[in-house]
Write a structure and sequence with these properties.
Blueprint lengths: L11 H14 L4 H15 L2 H12 L8 H14 L3 H14 L4 H13 L3 H15 L11 H14 L5 H9 L6 H4 L4 H4 L5 H22 L5 E5 L2 H10 L10 H17 L5 E5 L2 H11 L8 H11 L4 E2 L25
Parallel strand pairs: 1-2
Antiparallel strand pairs: 2-3
Helix pairs in contact: 1-2, 2-3, 3-4, 4-5, 4-6, 6-7, 6-8, 7-8, 8-9
InterPro entries: SEC_C_motif, TPR-like_helical_dom_sf
Organism: Streptomyces lasalocidi
Pfam families: SEC-C (PF02810)
């Protein structure tokens, strides 16, 4: 789907078919591509076909990067076409396994919220936040929807603000405060005859739309390219001119961490890391009609990998292994870099 194609002009069935064909061409990226295909099938109204794709992925969960995400999407989709019991069973299973990734928590909590299970939605948002947030640290970009969703549900439940609600207010960058966006009384203004109330509601809707557009404009992370040690050695042996870009593996790893920290400090959200391989990079260079020694190709390769869903979020969630592949916790490895 071209980024400049209006959503209302998309043939979702055709787009799903195209993505399935791409998954066959790029089996290493099949998970991300088939998830996109399933999303298009849901939008087309063919929810059983979307479930079939989720089942296809889950037929080998050990091969998936994020099986919890696939299960969460399947549950949300099932509930939308009257398979509530199965959806609830999957949601209960996800909550019991406590994934260390925000996305499955958000998806199942929003599914509960959409079906008026507000208390359960609140518990789910809270469980995810408690697991993934660290006191005193800036919440990773991926966890923001957890806090925003929890804030929204608590407003609908009439709960008083707590520390996480205050944090969510501070993280929101929209022109309208979260308290106003999530005001349960907003629905009444839609039927008002008061021009001032209607104008205020139009402003709130525009703010919400702006937030959604901002999220949609960043469908994959701003990704930095990482080469494992063996791959980098093979790369620089084959293309010696790249040693100017990569003087050593240690320097390469330090540059990745410092670059991501600079981006985060500048306010860039949704940061990630993609891991390259020499055969993949050479194939990409051939597809671009240039040599792998061309340093201007490196960021393009990183963006392409990210677009195929190969990026992992930075910084890692609390307790997760460092992105560098050392096996040590991030907080004890590159997370200590000053």
């Amino acid at each position: 789907m071209r980024p400049d194609t209006p959503a209302e002009n998309v043939d979702h069935t055709a787009e799903a078919a195209r993505l399935e064909r791409s998954a066959g061409l790029y089996p290493q990226d099949a998970e991300a591509l088939l998830l996109q295909a399933a999303a298009h099938l849901e939008l087309s109204g063919d929810r059983p076909a979307a479930t079939a794709l989720y089942d296809r992925l889950l037929s080998d969960p050990a091969a998936l990067d994020n099986p919890h995400l696939v299960r969460a999407l399947k549950a949300s989709n099932l509930w939308e076409y009257d398979h509530e019991a199965e959806a609830r069973a999957i949601i209960d299973g996800i909550r019991a396994t406590a994934p260390r990734d925000a996305a499955p928590w958000v998806i199942v909590a929003e599914a509960l919220e959409a079906h008026d299970e507000l208390e359960q939605a609140h518990e789910t948002f809270t469980e995810g936040a408690r697991l993934l947030l660290t006191d005193g640290e800036e919440p990773p970009y991926a966890t923001h929807p957890l806090l925003f969703g929890r804030h929204r549900v608590r407003r609908m439940l009439g709960a008083d603000h707590d520390a996480w609600d205050t944090l969510a207010d501070g993280l929101s960058t929209g022109p309208v405060p979260l308290d106003e966006l999530h005001d349960p009384g907003r629905v009444w203004s839609l039927g008002s005859d008061n021009p001032a109330e209607l104008r205020a509601e139009i402003s709130r809707l525009r703010a919400e739309l702006g937030t959604y557009r901002e999220a949609l404009s960043r469908p994959f992370p701003v990704a930095v390219l990482h080469w494992p040690k063996q791959e980098l050695t093979e790369l620089t042996d084959a293309y010696p001119s790249l040693t100017a870009e990569y003087p050593s593996h240690e320097a390469h790893l330090a540059t990745i961490e410092s670059s991501l920290r600079e981006l985060a400090t500048s306010g860039t959200p949704n940061l990630g890391i993609v891991t390259g391989t020499v055969p993949s990079y050479e194939a990409f260079a051939a597809s671009e009609g240039t040599t792998p020694a061309d340093t201007t190709l490196l960021p393009q390769y990183a963006t392409t990998l990210a677009a195929r869903g190969r990026a992992v979020a930075w910084p890692p969630q609390r307790g997760e292994a460092c992105w560098c592949g050392s096996g040590a916790p991030y907080g004890e490895c590159h997370g200590t870099q000053s």
